[in-house]
Amino acid sequence: MSFFQYIKTKRALKHLAYVLGIYVLLMLLSWFYLSWYTGHGEYVTIPDVRGKSLAEATDIMDDLDLEVVVIDSVWSDTAAKGSVKEMSPSFGSTLKEGREIYFTIYRLTPPMEIINIKQGEYADVAKVKLENKGIAFDVEYQANNNFVGNVISIRCQGKEIGYNQPLARGSRVKLVVGKSDGRTLQVPDLFGLTYIEAIRMLKSMDLQHQLFFDVNPTTTDSLEYKICKQEPPFSPASVPLSTGSIVDVYLSKTPCERDTVGLSLPQP
What we know:
Trypsin Inhibitor V, Chain A, 24% helix, three-stranded mixed beta sheet, alpha+beta, 4 domains
């Protein structure tokens, strides 16, 4: 009997029906298994849990058969500590049961910041640094002619904070800034002095200084530089300086002539 004749027999058709039945049954079983395993067609709508505590938000997601994963934490002075800030996918979206939902929460404790402010730093710069690091401050002025407009110290709860000392974001410190003691004095005559002589004179008068060299000196020839110019200039009629003021001093190794304009007293 040939093959084509055999497949026309009842026995062959019966076997073929068995095979097709088993195939259909396996397909149905596979479809039901995949539907159960993947949750095919079972979606839930994600509620808005922002502002809720992590524990409360997790309980809500557990009831929806969603797994919570915390991926980040941020600090805020005003938000409730440990509460949910952001969620992904966003609320209102649909998600299959059993899937993960990602939370960003507010930190329970503030991060630590290095203040990075040295004694003598400009007070305005120090204020910007503190603001950028989230540290509140009160300014206290103390009479100190060597630090007029500059930082004397930073204190927190009565203790001085060092340059590399960490401080919790959100802390409040006292920024101590120097100010003039209010005395006034005549502008000194610095022409022809070496920079060491000029610095000694300015310090004795409670004045600050900035040095400018026409050419950068070496350790061997620095004493050969003499002062050729100063701002404010010396004059018997010049406006008195307050203690703590800055005098700009310009030095040159090349001999220079004195500008005599304004050196004589005005005639009555």
